[in-house]
Amino acid sequence: MLEPLELMLAGIAGVLLLILIVSFRSRARIFCQYLRYMTGIQLTPGDVNKVFHLGGKAGVRDLFLDLLIREDLENSPPITPDTPPSKLAAELINK
After folding, report:
1. What is the pLDDT of residues 17-60, one digit of tens each?
2. Is residue 16 in a domain?
3. Segments forming the whole domain that contains residue 39
4. Is 77 helix (H, G, I), strand (E, B) or coil?
């Protein structure tokens, strides 16, 4: 029979294991919420999990950059040589 201290340690280990599992399972959901909040791009956690299993962290990074570039191209006017730089870009370039 297990002693009370051993039961308490087993309970604590079980709770920590549960927290670890939940945190790993929620990564895709949090990434999708972040992406929607910051850029307006909506993905499902299932899509992110598929990309992660196929390409790992680099695959998710490539997906994020690709979606971000596509969203930016859709929502911004075309840039020509005559287009003046934004104030922020001009400040960064002139430093």
Report:
1. 999 999 888 888 888 888 888 888 888 888 888 888 898 889 88
2. yes
3. 4-76
4. coil
